[in-house]
Design brief:
The protein folds into two domains: 181 residues, glycerate kinase, domain 1; 260 residues, Glycerate kinase, MOFRL-like N-terminal domain (Rossmann fold, 3-Layer(aba) Sandwich). It contains 16 helices and 15 strands. Helix 2 packs parallel to helix 3. 52% of the residues are buried.
């Protein structure tokens, strides 16, 4: 491997890691939550502690263990050495390297909900029913909460919800469409967790994995007024021609809701939200800012395209590759040494039966577009450390990736068509494996021109 290309690969990995460090869930909590002798502070929220007899903690998401541990530390080590009166943390299987001391932690299925998540949801509902007006509930929410906190509304079963989620994911539905459906099949999402906690005071710390950081979409907005409706959920299914394919119970619930036979999720202006405070503590834009700083320190000219990248993965990848190629050939977009950065969450319309995720598919599509180009590297990875149903965060490619693959007898185009990027990059040794990172602020793309 040429020396410059080897350096570019190391630099790309270091730049991505800078983004991960900036999005660290524990740091995010520490920056937005503190306790003095008299009050709790979170962002602009100031709450007098004398107003509460008990403090509870509920953490849900891929970063739940890390966020819960930090909240617990702040509460229990603050003035007066208060203790949590109870709580629960629900995270993805394998995402609990650290566990809080005073609350129970449960690992459950993601992105497809499972029985463990169903059990955890029942425990959460039992906890919420115990709260009163003298209680404070701190909610620590991160990406993955929608699937992890599965409490289907009767008569929808877990199996029916699993099938519906899988159909939407395979169709390439975005997070807004997916959550519109999930909220209206749930007993906790779309503001319904806040409704169950009422009249307690709720402070919700949100680690955003959604473009634009809308509080009603992060984790399906369990503590936020819901802007979507039953009609929106039906519209999302119709868009992908899925209404006739989802289980009958799902279809019937949504249609009854759209006809006004079932109560809507809580909307803006509902009095139950008067004592609910939602605070965004981390986002993709903060992570991207850190990657740009790191790139500059390493001697690159950073160009941040957007923290709101969305659309079909292969198309977005080709646009990125064209900007990288232009940087190399003309320098009109940004002169080398250049670092092109973006973040967000693209979608993959799954047509094949291969193994992979959107970041690996992004990298493979870029590899075609930069084939033969010298001194370029592209890295695409998920900040949570998992890309689709795989143990890789993403992958890294160069202008030689396609050529190397063909020498090994691999057909890059076939792997792309079959959505089979994982074994392709595994054979090349170009998978990026971080393990669970303890955060989740969507994806980061790093493209370097030396």
């Amino acid at each position: 491997m040429p020396r410059l290309e080897s350096k570019l690969r190391r630099d790309a990995a270091a730049i991505f890691k800078a983004g991960l460090d900036a999005a660290d869930a524990g740091k995010a909590v520490r920056a937005h939550l503190s306790i003095t002798a008299r009050e709790l502070k979170s962002g602009r929220v100031r709450l007098p502690l004398k107003a509460f007899d008990r403090i509870f903690l509920l953490a849900v998401g891929k970063a739940a263990a890390q966020m819960a541990t930090e909240v617990e530390s702040i509460v229990t080590k603050g003035p007066g050495k208060r203790r949590l009166s109870g709580g629960l943390a629900v995270t993805k299987h394998g995402h609990a390297p650290a566990a809080p001391r005073y609350i129970e932690i449960i690992e459950a299925g993601h992105p497809i909900p499972d029985e463990a998540g169903l059990k955890a949801s029942g425990m959460v509902r039992d906890l919420l029913r115990e709260l009163n007006a003298r209680d404070l509930l701190i909610v620590a929410l991160s990406g993955g909460a929608s699937a992890l906190l599965s409490a289907p509304a009767e008569p929808v079963t877990l199996t029916a919800k699993q099938k519906t989620t899988d159909l939407l994911l395979r169709a390439g539905a975005d997070i807004f469409e997916l959550n519109a459906v999930r909220k209206h099949l749930s007993l906790l999402k779309g503001g319904q967790l806040a409704a169950l906690a009422y009249p307690a005071t709720v402070v919700s710390l949100l680690l955003s994995d959604v473009i634009g950081d809308p509080i009603d979409v992060i984790g399906s907005g369990p503590t936020a007024p819901d802007l979507s409706t039953f009609a929106d959920a039906i519209g999302a299914l119709n868009k992908y021609d899925l209404l006739g394919r989802v289980p009958a119970a799902v279809r019937n619930v949504l249609q009854r809701g759209a006809n006004g036979e079932l109560a809507e999720t809580p909307k803006p202006g509902d009095p139950l939200f008067e004592n609910v405070h939602n605070v965004v503590v981390g986002s993709n834009s903060l992570a991207l800012a850190a990657t740009a700083r790191k790139a500059k320190l390493l001697g690159y000219r950073p160009l941040v395209l957007s923290s709101s990248m969305e659309g079909e993965t292969r198309e977005v990848a080709r646009v990125h590759a064209s900007i990288l190629r232009e940087a190399v050939t003309s320098g009109s977009s940004v002169r080398p040494p250049a670092c092109i950065l973006s973040g967000g969450e693209t979608t993959v319309t799954v047509r094949g039966k291969g193994k992979g995720g959107r970041n690996q598919e992004f990298a493979l599509a870029v590899a075609f577009a930069i084939d033969g180009l010298a001194n370029v590297v592209a890295l695409s990875a998920g900040t949570d450390g998992t890309d689709g149903p795989t143990d890789a965060a993403g992958a890294i490619v160069t202008g030689e990736t396609v050529g190397r693959a063909k020498e090994l007898g691999l057909d890059p185009f076939d792997h792309l068509v079959r959505n089979d990027a994982y074994p392709f990059f595994d054979a090349l040794g170009d998978l990026l494996k971080t393990g669970p990172t303890g955060t989740n602020v969507m994806d980061i793309n790093v493209l370097l021109a030396g």
